[in-house]
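User: Good morning. I'm curious how 26W would be positioned relative to this chain. Could you predict the structure with it bound?
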Amino acid sequence: MDIKQRMQELSQAKYSRELAQCGGEQLYHVLLQLSQELAQARPAPAGERKLYYFSAEFLIGKLLSNNLLALGIFDEVSKVLAECGHTLSAVEDVEPEPSLGNGGLGRLAACFLDSIAALGLNGDGVGLNYHYGLFEQRFHRSHQYEQPNPWIEDESWLIPTGVEFEVPFGFGGVKARLLDIAVPGAHSGIANRLHLFDVENPAPAPADGIDFDKSDLPARLTSFLYPDDSDEAGRLLRVYQQYFMVSAGAQLILKELEERGFDPRTISDHVAIQINDTHPSMVIPELVRLLTARGLSMDEAVAQVSRTCAYTNHTILAEALEKWPLTFIEKVAPQLVPIIRELDARAKAAHSDPRVAIIQGGAGREVVHMAHMDIHYGYSVNGVAALHTDILKNSELKPFADIYPAKFNNKTNGVTLRRWLEVCNPQLASLLDECVGTEWRTDPTRLNKLMDYYNDSAVLDRLLEIKAANKRRASDLFIRDQYGIRLDPEAVFDIQVKRLHEYKRQQMNALYVIHKYLEIKAGRIPERPVTVIFGAKAAPAYVMAKNIIHLILCLRRLIENDPQVRPWLHVAMVENYNVTWAERIIPACDISEQISLASKEASGTGNMKFMANGAVTLGTLDGANVEIAELVGPDNIYTFGAGSNYVIELYDQKAKDSSKGYQSRVYYERPAVKPLVDFLLSPVMTELGDEAALKALQNDMINKDWFMALLDVEAYIAARDRAIADYGDRTAWARKMLVNIARSGFFSSDRTIAEYNRDIWNLK
Ligand code: 26W
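Assistant: Good morning! Here's the predicted structure, ligand included:
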């Protein structure tokens, strides 16, 4: 197809205008339609077995550039736009970012869809079409506020399919309408689909913030992702959402199975279901229900389902392992209760260990342990990084690993380097083309060849120039879009962007900022200026996380207003951090903050994106940081802090005797730590901020500090100062950048997906 000609035709048909006369908004819609046409003309992949990737989140980001790349017309379209005086990135500014995810788990699902399609595998996503997304974050008086984040426009990537299913809730049936988003594969010629279910008559956005009447079902089922679950109505709504997704999804699977001409008795030969964390776990009893309704015996249905479903665990935090009161399920989907009881009875008959029961607790207090159902009735259980899988096998899920050793396997996460390098960092991508050839774009392990340039000063200089250009660009976008916030592109860019959670320890990063501030105030001027950038949303009901945001925003104000400190230290926090901001910030990063308490971050995936863009990691030996450290070697990463075994030991001690194990007060009393923590309630801070919030945070640090920030903070400060000092030797630093880029090929999600397919899905 002549791309330029088709763009011309579309601009005439849609706007009765020459392409060259179109504005950014019109060009966006021309390209949206062009991409839709090309993607829909592509065949679905062949394959005996088809994967359905069930996930409550798909954090897909803007789609235009990514789809143009996958469709093989990125360069051509960029050229045509340039002829009209536009750039693709300016056109893409018009596109709203779909707000269908929260953090790593959702973004991983999006990278996986991209890689499944790129590898030509037969696999679709199944999720929900949240109209107002997670929430849009606003800062006001140094606090986070939440607003609905509507993203669906009249013309969008959503394709109505006309397919509908009835979901049988306890209160009656609700129609699920299927909308699809095409997922074209790069270099594979095929397109898969992301199936998003929606209600027939979605409710309008709530009038005030994100609070709404949670009993207003069914209209509210697809309003928000994870609506505030701090009360019972919110938690119940989640269960409604989950059942809506899995019941409609299971019906879709059976419909397609029939259309492909297969008997439901052979479903496991033709279908694989990946359960992304426990949010979709009710697909197991639902599929048993639907199969028995189609004539299979209970034994047959259970056997088939157990060879169809596979489960991925993304966290070991106890509070995130879902346990639903049986009364909730009784209310939402009463027809599942006898099936879950049967599944539980079978598991209990086979395994007397109460720790592996599906239903736990006495009469009236029974809870359904979703992960346990997945493990007993799934054929594969995987963690998302080597360390995480080891912890699952050796502690968190040990009783299960002892029963089913063969089910457990590791699949270290990956990210799509198409979005996270080719699209977001085109200058670096073309330097890599020059150095290692363009093959790295289809085979990222080729990036290893970059090591040949370790002593090539011209290439090292180019790396530094590209980084500097990306820092200037990010600074310009900050001024433009973040209320004129000024970054210093000459400073070291030190970045921590991820969900806000105590275990990720943004509070420890803030303590470092305080340390630097106090140093400068005491006249000890740092070697070079540092810009500390944060980006994070806090769950609406997570008070401590919001307090940490408050601390960061107060520190920002304090420093900006202090002419003595400002030349050396900047703090910036991105408002409404999302995929779009990640694409702008990550290429500009020098130091990548990956500082979770060892054992708590299952993998992390931001760490991989930063590495591929030439940032050097400052991190604990947690999650995939461990594998990054092995790949780049000790000279090219800064690791610090307590190891996971020690941390787990401390928790065990505390569980046995609360006066043992980690006692934060001991660390608080250390002379290097106390002034930092005390500073939270210093007069300059209480004048700026909300004293109660700061006090609550300080009090928690001193008396609880469950994620042990004070245990590691001294080692952290030392490691960070060392990294900032090393940054001064530009050649040595460029070498570290080069090694990180060269070794990032392993973290391509194409590699991860090839492993899932080889070990779990067997799609072809
Ligand atoms: C209570 C329900 C619930 C629980 C946990 C909702 C959402 C979550 C998290 C947001 C799940 C999540 O994002 N986990 C992350 O998954 C990534 C992909 O595997 C990992 O890289 C991260 O380490 C892990 O935190």
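The chain has a mean pLDDT of 97. The chain is about 45% helix and 15% strand.
Let me know if you'd like a different ligand tried.
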